[in-house]
Amino acid sequence: xxxxxxxxxxxxxxxxxxxxxxxxxxxxxxxxxxxxxxxxxxxxxxxxxxxxxxxxxxxxxxxxxxxxxxxxxxxxxxxxxxxxxxxxxxxxxxxxxxxxxxxxxxxxxxxxxxxxxxxxxxxxxxxxxxxxxxxxxxxxxxxxxxxxxxxxxxxxxxxxxxxxxxxxxxxxxxxxxxxxxxxxxxxxxxxxxxxxxxxxxxxxxxx
Length: 207
Description:
Number of domains: 2
Structural class: mainly alpha
Shape: globular
Strand content: under 5%
CATH architecture of the largest domain: Orthogonal Bundle
CATH superfamily of the largest domain: RNA polymerase sigma factor, region 2, helix turn helix motif
Mean pLDDT: 76
Largest sheet: none
C-alpha cells in the first residue's frame, strides 16, 4: 500500500473511532458540514459513499488496479481542499464525477502536454470524418452482450470509455456533460457519437 493510501486510511479510521456517528445527511449537508467544521468524520462518510464509484472511474482511465487505487486517494485528498468550491448548482455526484473525470484525464494525458478540460468545440480530421458517418443508435449499445461490451470498452480510449460510462451507467445528461467537459452541446454530442462508433467497431471485431 502506498504512503498516500495509508495517510487517507489513517484519517478515515481515526475519525470513525474517535467521534460519534452523525445522522444520515444528504450529500449537500455533508459537504456543508465538512467545509464549516473540518470534521474528518463527515469526510469519511462522503468517502464511504463515493469511493467505489470514484475508483471505477479511475480504473476506466488507468486500467491498473493499484494505479486506480492511488488515483482514487489522490482524488479524495484534492477533493478535501476543493469542497468549498461546490456551489450546489448541480447534484454533488455530477460535480464529483466531473472532478474525477478531469483529474484522471489530466493525469493520463500529462505526457501529451494537453488537458481534457482545455478541449474546445473544434474537431480534428478524424472527428470531422466521424461527423459524416451514420450514428449508432443507443439501443444497439444496450443490446450488446455484457461480456463483449466490457471487452470492447477496454479497447477504446480511456476518455471515450469514461464518457460512455458517465452517460449510460451514471445517467449524466448531455447538459451536465457540458459542465463536466466544459464544452458546448454540439461537441458533447459529437464525442458521444465518436465513442459509440468506436465501441461498436471494437465490439464487431470480437468473436
